[in-house]
Design goal:
The complex is a heterodimer of chains A (505) and B (336). By secondary structure, chain A is mainly alpha-helical. Chain A has helices at residues 8-16, 28-31, 56-79, 92-101, 103-119, 123-153, 160-164, 171-182, 185-199, 201-214, 218-248, 252-281, 289-308, 319-325, 329-339, 353-362, 367-384, 433-441, 443-446, 452-457, 466-472, 487-496, 498-504; strands spanning 407-408, 412-416, 419-423, 426-430. In chain A, the strands form 2 sheets. Chain A has a two-stranded antiparallel ribbon. A two-stranded antiparallel sheet of chain A has the order 3-4. The longest helix of chain A has 31 residues, at 123-153. Chain A is globular and about 85 Å long. Chain B is an all-alpha fold and 336 residues long. Chain B is globular. Chain B has helices at 18-24, 32-37, 82-105, 114-124, 127-144, 148-175, 181-192, 194-207, 212-241, 245-250, 252-275, 277-306, 310-327. Chain B has 13 helices and no strands. In chain B, helix 5 (127-144) packs antiparallel against helix 6, helix 5 (127-144) packs antiparallel against helix 9 and helix 9 packs parallel to helix 12 (277-306). The longest helix of chain B has 30 residues, at 212-241. Chain B is 68% helix and 0% strand. The chains are: A mainly alpha (505), B mainly alpha (336). At the A-B interface, helix 1, helix 3, helix 5, helix 6 and helix 7 of A face helix 2, helix 3, helix 5, helix 6 and helix 7 of B.
């Protein structure tokens, strides 16, 4: 008898649904204890539409093909000393920030999605989260393997995961990831899958991956491309979960909107680090931060939220401010890194004349007026030998944990933006209305934050002096400071044969 | 004759990441396995307590009673990181796919006696729920465990179980020409037939276990140590003798998978028991508890699968399991 034909959809359903069951010896609320406390109401998990239909056999097959290609490129890159083809070794500051600040978030996402992969009550949602959990593990591992070769030839890449737990500017991504992970499962997925991976993913992908391509970094480009098909699955999951929550019950809308507001701002503040990377660390930048923001957030994001307005969802709060800040963000962040370049695990450098001209062109309203004078002033000081790094430790925002460097861009761009809240008799400082709102809504959560500067003052970071703290960070003296004159720089000149020319001159 | 390709050699300034240099020295470059899984998980300076578990930090070694001086004492003997894992499984799925296609093309099921097909429906098809539960349990371990070496091995295991639940489902579909009657009957048996209720009860109890290492013992040491040898090996052999070699072809993946998986569970038992007397006692207590429970639960399944021979088959499997665990350092096990 010929077998009945199954269409793909039906076949997929049989391979992923109906294997779970309503437990009878324990209440389902005890088997799935975490998916109701946030107040999200799910009336029918069977309405969940699987965002991608991938059975495990197909997954193994596709992913293995991608891995074979990726590792062939990684091996060949190492064998042929691909690092010598970079635009400039100073570009690696971006990769140093990537492996210390982004790769650990991939691991965090792996664990976070495993948590959801166990604890969502719906079978389909669990499987989708598990797929993402293993993908995120892939990204962490392939990034470590790709960047391993750079670690063999450059400083500042040797202890990324140890540093993620400790270093002052890495508490920005760490607190971002832990904020989502310590929340309930629906908030986690709204934060990571939607706010971060759907709405803002290009703001990370473009500078790092196109940035890598623009600077001869074939290793990073390759894992970027290889991760792209995973990422598109993750984005589909982000959109599906939002629609699912909003379709399930009208009471979910205000909760989802609040999470959207919160995690948009949280992710946007995290990306402030990326803005500096994009505009300053990349020797050749494919797009300025502002250009990328206009295309990927203002245009594409605007269209997305227009589409979502039929569910009642509106643009995230303070998005206008984020757009106004686009003219200032990267300059403010890179300035503070340059001033604290004695305490970074990557090299800092002042923008070259050529770079400043590019910045003037990309930021006609702000760069020459506010920021060029400061970089020229520091350049002059460096020439005269009078430049001094900041000796004082900066005050950090209680929520995003970035130093309080942002300004009132809508009224007076030279005026620092500063907000404060009180909680149980203590004062907590925040950098913006966005961060203050987040604090005020859950003060008991954000009051717990492990703020690196506070911790240094309390003596929890190896000692009271900068060298002691840096040693505790495992920052070697050659890891930070100016790129010009560094070991990385010297090595680069040696490979390029420019060291002799310099000596001759 | 070898041809020398002259290339510029550039001496590296270091051979591996700092954590690996501390662990293994820097005489030679670290392996990809080492780079991928060691010391990736955060261990300090957590920002916020989980809203869903205020008694623990986000990553917290005290989520189990097992205590390890260094959670990275355990290494996967297969050295699986994502790349090697997916490449290994892709090869296995290629074989499985070939087998499924071959059975389908040659209508091999036509020659399988009806009573053998029925036995497969009654004994093998309900195992898709067992694998599904194993997927949940290993996902739970991935979620709660301590150390990126553990989360990696548990994640791969969780996905393997989903894959095997899907292979069993495909077997179920082949058994009735995609009519789904075998899957429906399997689910009904799993929920209602007396022979499966003890096992389902035990598995539901595993869903609510507090200690992830106890869950590791219950699921990956004991339950798998009974079910795979009993049902995917011995029972398949019986089906083969009775004219059902076709069915064995379709579950070859599971048999191979188990032989491979035992390598890391053995290594894990060994390193955990060796660490301390207290660990060894916990492992022994949990192994005894879950062996009693699960052997009892599997008795009616074994009787159904093997008839009069069932209890003896199960007892042999149990003895093999306990002997193996004892050999790997879990002493004080109750042998019959």
């Amino acid at each position: 008898m010929p077998a009945k034909k199954l269409n793909l959809r039906k076949r997929y359903e049989l391979l992923t649904r109906g294997m779970g069951w309503e437990t009878t010896h324990h209440d389902m609320d005890d088997v799935f204890p975490y998916d109701s406390f946030e107040g999200i109401k799910i009336t029918d998990w069977d309405k969940w539409e699987d965002p991608f239909r991938l059975t495990m056999d197909a997954y193994w097959k596709f992913q293995a093909e991608k891995e074979k290609k990726l590792y062939a490129v990684i091996d060949s890159f190492a064998q042929n000393n691909g690092q010598t083809n970079l635009s400039d070794a100073s570009y690696l500051s971006a990769i140093k920030l990537f492996i210390t600040g982004v790769t650990p978030i991939e691991y965090a996402a792996h664990r976070g999605f495993a948590h959801l992969g166990r604890h969502f009550r719906g079978d389909g949602a669990r499987v989708a989260c598990q797929m993402q959990a293993i993908d995120e593990l892939r990204h962490q591992q392939t990034q470590v393997h790709t960047i391993s070769h750079y670690n063999k030839h450059f400083n500042g890449l040797h202890d990324p995961f140890y540093q993620f737990d400790r270093v002052w500017y890495l508490s920005v991504p760490k607190s971002f990831a832990e904020d989502a992970m310590t929340a309930g499962p629906f908030e986690f997925i709204t934060s990571i899958s939607f706010a971060f991976e759907y709405v803002l993913t290009n703001m990370l992908f473009v500078p790092f991956m196109s940035g890598a391509a623009y600077n001869g970094d074939m290793a990073t480009v390759t894992f970027g491309f290889s991760a792209q098909s995973d990422e598109s699955r993750h984005m589909t999951l982000g959109l599906e979960i939002i629609k699912f929550m909003l379709e399930q019950h009208e009471d979910n809308l205000p909760i989802v909107q609040r999470w959207m507001d919160k995690h948009f701002w949280r992710a946007y503040r995290l990306l402030a680090l990326v803005s500096a990377m994009q505009d300053y660390m990349l020797t050749n930048s494919p797009l300025s931060w502002k250009e990328a923001w206009d295309v990927y957030f203002v245009e594409n994001g605007g269209a997305l939220f227009e589409d979502l307005s039929r569910y009642g969802l509106r643009m995230p709060k303070y998005h206008e401010l984020a757009t106004a800040e686009a003219d200032h963000l990267s300059h403010q962040v890179w300035s503070v890194f340059c001033l604290l370049g004695n305490a970074t695990g990557f090299h800092t450098f002042l923008p070259t004349e050529e770079k400043m001209d590019w910045l003037s062109e990309k930021y006609p309203d702000t760069f020459d007026k506010y920021y060029r004078p400061r970089f020229e002033h520091w350049a002059k000081q460096k020439e005269e030998g009078t430049f001094k790094y900041l000796e004082a430790l900066p005050q950090l925002c209680q929520v995003c944990q970035i130093p309080m460097i942002f300004t009132e861009v809508e009224t007076d761009p030279m005026q620092l933006s500063f907000r404060a809240s009180e909680y149980k008799g203590d004062k907590y400082n925040t950098c913006s209305d966005g961060c203050k709102d987040i604090f005020d809504h859950e003060p008991e959560k954000y009051a717990q934050a492990w703020l690196p500067v506070h911790q240094i003052f309390q003596g929890n970071c190896g000692g009271a002096t900068i060298p002691e703290v840096l040693e505790w960070y495992k920052f070697a003296p050659e890891d930070g400071g100016d790129y010009i004159g560094s070991q990385d720089h010297a090595r680069w000149q040696e490979w390029k044969g420019t060291d002799k020319k310099v000596k001759e001159a | 004759m070898s041809i020398e390709i002259s290339a510029k050699t550039i001496q590296p300034v270091r051979l591996s990441y700092g954590n690996l240099k501390e662990r293994f020295g820097d005489k030679k470059p670290a392996s990809r396995y080492q780079e991928a899984v060691y010391d990736i998980q955060p261990t300090a300076n957590f920002h916020y307590r989980p809203l869903w578990d205020k008694n623990h930090e986000l990553y917290d070694a005290s989520r189990t009673a097992i205590v390890m001086e260094d959670w990275y004492s355990f290494a996967d003997p297969r050295q699986y990181y994502y790349g090697t894992y997916t490449i290994a499984r892709a090869k296995q799925q290629d074989v499985a796919e070939h087998n499924f296609a071959f059975v389908d093309k040659r209508d091999l099921f036509d020659s399988v006696p009806e009573e053998v097909k029925q036995a497969a429906r009654e004994i093998l098809v309900p195992l898709r729920h067992v694998e599904w539960a194993a997927n949940m349990n290993n996902c739970q371990i991935t979620d709660e465990c301590y150390g990126s070496n553990f989360s990696t091995v548990a994640m791969f295991n969780a996905m393997d179980r989903l894959g095997m639940a899907q292979y069993v489902t495909r077997l179920g579909l082949l058994l009735d020409g995609n009519e789904e009657t075998s899957l429906d009957a399997g689910k009904k048996a799993w929920m209602e037939a007396p022979e499966w209720q003890g096992l389902r009860h035990a598995i539901e109890d595993m869903f609510v276990l507090d200690d992830w290492f106890e869950l590791m013992v219950a699921q990956n040491f004991v339950l798998d140590g009974l079910v795979f040898p009993l049902l995917y090996d011995r029972f398949e052999k019986k089906l083969t003798t009775d004219g059902g070699a076709t069915i064995a072809m379709l579950t070859e993946f599971m048999d191979d998978w188990y032989k491979e998986t035992v390598r890391w569970t053995n290594a894990l038992a060994k390193v955990t028991a060796k660490e301390s007397e207290a660990n060894q006692e916990l492992l022994s207590e949990w192994t005894n508890k879950w062996t009693d429970r699960l052997v009892g639960a599997l008795e009616p399944v074994a009787a159904k699968a093997f008839g009069a021979d069932g209890i003896e088959q199960l007892t042999e499997v149990k003895e093999e399991l306990l002997a193996r665990l004892t050999k790997n350092g879990i002493t004080g096990l109750k042998r019959s």
